């Protein structure tokens, strides 16, 4: 596969000169989640975005070749707060559990989701067909979280994603039962952040594990 694949860690104001990659990632999300999957989520003609793209310091990991985006994800620390008036938002899993997100079931977690400077949430993961794109995004996200002294990352995704994480050697802990809505069935789970060298060793089997079974696009997470 092409060896010019790169990943960028993007957050304001540090990486404002590369913010075109975030705009292209939002367009990529609109293509997959709205145009392909038909999810009834907010979007413009070109972009898909939500409250969590603003608010408290979102971080984006974007995979790209040149300036062409081929995948990405969003990270938010779980202790952040944003909003005005009587409603204050934090992160997607917790806000769903609190009943602040009508499209998501409240029972996706068995106990109250954590609030911590050392716990982050990953959402809006989407990648092109190549397994190397998925691998690059997961490794880059783990590396970033490790440098931020994070202990855990929370995920909200399809039932396939925790199985994949286990196959790659991550210690997956389900946060609740499999739940569903009109968009499908999904589950909340958590994984520890690993030392980057350990994560690299475990991820090297991803191409063999996924083989040719990946769809044209892989919207694993919400």
UniProtKB/TrEMBL annotation:
Keywords attached to this entry: Autoinducer synthesis, Quorum sensing, S-adenosyl-L-methionine, Transferase
One of the record's GO molecular function terms: transferase activity
Stored PROSITE patterns: AUTOINDUCER_SYNTH_2
Any one Gene Ontology BP term: quorum sensing
Transmembrane regions: none
Family note: Belongs to the autoinducer synthase family.
The protein's name in its UniProt record: Acyl-homoserine-lactone synthase
Source organism of the structure: Paracoccus aurantiacus
């Amino acid at each position: 596969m092409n060896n010019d694949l790169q990943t960028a860690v993007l957050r304001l104001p540090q990486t404002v000169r590369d913010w075109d990659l975030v705009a292209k990632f939002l367009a990529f999300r609109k293509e997959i989640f709205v145009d392909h999957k038909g999810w009834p989520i907010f979007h413009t003609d070109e972009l898909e975005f939500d409250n969590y793209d603003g608010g408290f310091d979102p971080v984006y990991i974007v995979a790209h070749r040149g300036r062409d985006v081929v995948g990405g994800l969003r990270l938010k620390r779980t202790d952040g707060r944003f909003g005005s008036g009587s409603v204050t938002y934090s992160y997607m899993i917790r806000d769903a559990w609190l009943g602040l997100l009508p499209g998501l079931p409240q029972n996706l977690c068995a106990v109250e989701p954590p609030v911590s400077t050392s716990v982050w949430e990953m959402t809006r993961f989407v990648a092109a067909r190549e397994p190397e794109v998925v691998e690059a995004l997961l490794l880059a996200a783990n590396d970033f979280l490790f440098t931020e002294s994070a202990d855990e990352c929370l995920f909200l995704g399809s039932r396939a994603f925790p199985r994949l994480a286990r196959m790659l050697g991550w210690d997956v802990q389900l946060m609740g039962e499999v739940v569903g809505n009109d968009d499908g069935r999904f589950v909340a789970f958590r994984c520890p952040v690993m030392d980057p060298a350990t994560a690299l060793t475990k991820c090297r089997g991803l191409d063999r594990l996924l083989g040719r079974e990946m769809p044209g696009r892989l919207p694993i997470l919400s």
